[in-house]
Amino acid sequence: MKKAVIIYNSKKGATKRYAEQISVYLNSKKLTTQVLSIDNYSEEFIQDADYLMLGCWTSGLMVFMQNPEKDWRQFASRLPETLKAKTALFTTYKVLTGSMFKNMRKQLNGKADSCTTEIKSRNGFLSEKDKEAIDAFIG
Ligand SMILES: Cc1cc2nc3c(=O)[nH]c(=O)nc-3n(C[C@H](O)[C@H](O)[C@H](O)COP(=O)(O)O)c2cc1C
User: Fold this and answer.
1) What is the CATH number of domain 3-138?
2) Pocket around ligand 1: residues whose beta carbon is below 6 Å from it?
């Protein structure tokens, strides 16, 4: 069985819910999953992961300057230099994600350059489009 590890940063719960919904969907696709907050991250969690999904809430000035917040930036710097798992990014937001994914990548500093899957949600629930993106990611 392939394993996906989903690691999120959430303040009010939307991103946590999104992470959990991603997990439920991946379980329905016969993957084993582990969901954890960046607060509980350590390298051992991702050692045997085939897929890694990294998420955080969108922080910025609503229409521009979106960035992952400091805690997530620190988390990104703690990830190993080379991620063996295939990696995707996710975020939750209210208005616009703008530069969010670009800046998440910047913080990952080349660690997940091959990752192209990005999904986003306003409410933390998976849309049909998200499901299609995840299908392609694990396909
Ligand atoms: C300080 C702050 C800045 C935010 N900046 C943005 C923003 O630039 N664009 C946006 O769409 N949402 C923005 N939001 C909304 C959050 O990204 C959104 O509510 C998110 O779902 C919160 O996730 P959480 O419930 O996991 O904490 C901001 C929220 C806060 C508290």
Assistant:
1) 3.40.50.360
2) 10-16, 57-62, 66, 92-96
